[in-house]
Amino acid sequence: MPTAQLINELQSYGVRLVDPIAGHESRRGGAGPSDHKALTIEGMTVMVPVHTAPAFSSPYFVEKPDASGRSRVSRDGVILGEASFPRRPRFYELVTADGVPYWKIAVLHGRDVLATTVLQTCVRYLSRTKTCQFCAIGQSLAAGRTIERKTPAQLAEVAKAAVALDGVTHMVMTTGTPPGRDRGAAILAESALAVKAAVDLPIQGQCEPPDDDGWFARMKHAGIDSLGMHLEAVTPPVRARIMPGKAQVSLDRYFEAFAAAVPVFGRGQVSTYILAGLGDAKEAILAACEKLVALGVYPFVVPFVPISGTPLESHPPPTPAFMHEILQPLARMLRAAGLRATDIKAGCGKCGACSALSTYERDAAERETWEAAE
Ligand code: SF4
Known about the structure:
The chain is an alpha/beta fold. The protein is built from twelve helices and 13 strands. Strand 5 (about 70-75) and strand 6 (about 80-85) form a beta hairpin. Iron/sulfur cluster (SF4) binds near residues 32 and 33.
């Protein structure tokens, strides 16, 4: 089975782990996609659902790792490939001077990404009528797996250690949306300033579009190298149903903000996360991607994962065929526009672990090379 197809299948169905403690801790709760475990397949590290309802009945199994850390991936007794689990990061052993374990401040995502949610509360999460239906930002906080507000000093300390001990190469800073018109830009800027003063680490900031476009230059000046403003859903009815609070910021405002941010951060350094499988038709997702790519924005399309404990925990994930029909033309669109995951300085598009998109990009590039050689 081609690697892109296998990753698509694993991300849609999830996997059953024969050894549930293989690899380091899985990501549960928190902002954005969750309930995953990192697996490396054919050199690509991807996040695969393991704690979701579909994963519990997945036809895919990952066997217990052998002495060298390799596991076999199988379906119906047929071995489809090999996988390995990234090791537990060394920085997880450390504790700040004020007694907070480093892993409560930031965690390892994928293979080499340090990820943190600077503010673990969100103005949209206070009421079930406003909350994004897929989000679990409050769950990890309620379970004591993180702290509410990571200070700039704590983030700088952890980032420095993660680079030194675990070879982390970029950092994702996301945030719940605080009250106020900057929508999180201000705390991202102060956090980035502190991290950059401690260690030379490319940073992606992720927030809703602030009301004032002047924040883009302020964030860039503070040390944020690339910016994520996440649409999640691309049509007004799906946005209103799935994310009633966040949908109050209109699609028009998102696109105005993209147009204002690209000249500040550069073409391909502004990205948006789109969750496929929430109700938007593939044609609508591809049409939105075309508009984004024309602006120089990288659309990172990922399969929706139904996180346990959220209102969407029983919503089915998209099928592998649905993802394939989006990711294959999207990879070609990105190639044609000269936008590449590998050129992004920091963030989810660069990491790529939550989607098979970068594998499709790699396949599209290889196909172009063969065609040129023929
Ligand atoms: S793509 Fe983003 S959310 Fe997914 S593992 Fe990578 S950094 Fe984390």
